[in-house]
Structures are given as structure tokens and as C-alpha cells.
Amino acid sequence: MPTVIDFRRASLDLARVNKSGRHIGSRVYWKLYAVENLVRIIIHSVLSVQVIPPPWWAVAVDLKTQRKVGRIQADYALSPRYSTPGRHDIYYLFLPDLHEIMRVHRHLFVDFVPQVDRLLINLDLVRLPRNLVGHMNWPKAYDRQRIDLAYTHARRLIRDLRTSKFSLLIP
Asked: Kindly report the CA angle at 84 between 81 and 88, in degrees rounded to 5?
């Protein structure tokens, strides 16, 4: 199998641009997609069963973030032909926002997700690589290791929660 190289390191070749995109998407991006969505499921599941009255969003998410999500939703509402990120507000958040919700409400997560601190550290360690890959740039080996670790850990957490009979709720 021929080696795929970063298209920016050679003369312009459309085939090389396409190969670069497919390579990043198939090797790295999908793991970040899985991590972010598994974290959304964990946050929604934990906060939905806590003392926080439904909907948890209005209580657990700071006003600044709620306003940001409102602006994003308004942009989508102005262009109804486009798909939206999801039905729940949590789908309009980015990785740093998800990290912040878990950090602020850590005390609500620790009983259900005893490794919440490890999860927070892993999310913080993939913040920059996530932005890099999200814009289809080439991550270094260290970035890929961080992403692999976050992915493995998120999957393990979901497996452990399912094993403990914790009810996972898709937002």
C-alpha cells in the first residue's frame, strides 16, 4: 500500500489532496467523532438522573454557553435546508464546552464515572489535536496517541457503565 503524504508537502496534485483527506478521515477523525459523542451520552445520561430538575440543560450549563448555543441554533433556523447538529442542545457544543460541563459538575459524575478525572485529563489532552484534525490537518504521532488513548478510554467507560446497568440515554 503506497504511503499517503501530506498534500501540502509537494506540488499541487488534486489526487494527493483527496488521498490526504481520506487518510485523515479514516485514521483519526472518526475516533474524535466517537469520543465527542460518547462524552455527550455520558453527560446527558448522568445529568438526566441527578437531582438537577429536567431539563438539566437550563441548570447545568452556564448562561454564556446557552447563549452561544442559541446563536448557533438561530443560524441553522435561518437556513432550514441544512441539517442540524441534533435535537438536543448538547449537540451544538464543542469539546471544550463538554469538558467544562463535566469539570464544573464533577461531583455529580464521580459516583457514576469514578474515572471522571482521567476522562477530563484525556479530553483536555485532545483539545488541540481535535482542532487540528477537525480542520483536516495532519496530526503528529503524539497527537494520534492522545486521540487513541481518549478513544480507548471513552469506549471503556461506556462498556463499564453498561456493565453496571447504568442507563445510557442518547440525547
From this structure: 145
